Amino acid sequence: MDRLVILEPSNQVAIRIEPSQRCHGELTLRNVMYTMPIAFKLQPMNKSRYTIRPQSGVILPLATLSVEITYILPPNSSLPETFPHSEDLFLLHSVVVPGAMKDASSTLDSIPNDWFATRKKQVFIDSGINVLYVGSSILSYLVSEGSMDEIREVLEKSDPSWHACDSIDTQRQTLLHFAIAQSQPDLVQLLLEFEPDIGAQNQSGCSPLETASGAGEALNVELLLARRARTERSEYSNWGRIHFAAAGGHLEVMRLLLLKGADMDAKTEDGRTALHLAVEEYHRDCAKLLPASGSRPDIRGAHNGDTALHVAAGLGDEGMVKLLLQKGANKDIRNQNGKTAYDVDADYGQTRLYDALKLGNGLSSAARKGEVRSIHRLLENGASFKRFVEKRR
């Protein structure tokens, strides 16, 4: 026999490191003797760094006893000196004690040292105990470093009741938010294996899918959608997933969201649609995709009733104006100030959208541009000067 005590569930004890909390872990010792009680003594080699309760005791035949190991963090530090694996050693002494009391609990931390004197009897010494530091502080650092193997090990060794995969850092970000912000799909996929809360919100009220949509990483978005992440706006977020994608010009992300049923006409907290945002940020491909997918181009914004066409006109974006008109935008809609898209264009000192908005006939267009030959040709072909004057009035 090479030992009297086995360690359960393994010889590794997980010590949880959390801000402003006692750092501790638990180890179970099992007496493998069928008929004899055994005495044990567990000692850290670095006594200033650990406390153990109970440090010694008697375990009845085939019985178990739980030992708590508390770690003392270095001064002014929130993390151990080395992690997640500790280099510290522990010595577990065990010896058969036939005459020990049947009530093992009464002898805890009161075992005479001479019981473990090797000159009296055979003492087993085990130095195989090792420490793995776990907890939110450890995981946040490992995620920032992209340490895939160590992240997996820490998550696997963490108690399921801790929900370690939902750990948050000092900025109130979950591990999933952090991995997404770093554009690491492999790490996102690893975290998703441990079933984190994919609806968790960060300090800004954004879900992981909203963060991924804003970052424009299509693979991360696809991974989250495969886990049934919701496509609608989170309760405390000002924008929804489709809004982040549209404002960022992330065309592939928008396609993925639309395929999963995202509401393309949903409004932000301040009343803008994804189309408003795409137009504002000059993302023509996104502005083209939305009406082609069924988005209504004439939805009014909540602030002043501007449609996407009003926005494009105010920016003087002739190409966007033409695109929206091709997609069915109504140039005659007035906002809450009673102004059409051309009126908004004129308010900004611009008049070059007159033709793009198709507000005049060929004669008026030629006159505005000073094209004398075109004017003569149009008049010769029967263009009405009277109608031109009436339009100008």
TrEMBL record:
Superkingdom: Eukaryota
Domain MSP stretches: 4-134
Pfam families on file: Ank_2, Ank_5, Motile_Sperm
Entry keyword set: ANK repeat, Repeat
UniProt cross-references to SUPFAM superfamilies, sorted A to Z: Ankyrin repeat, PapD-like
Keyword Membrane on entry: no
Keyword Repeat: yes
UniProt repeat feature ANK, residue ranges: 171-203, 242-269, 270-302, 304-336
Protein name stated in the entry: MSP domain-containing protein
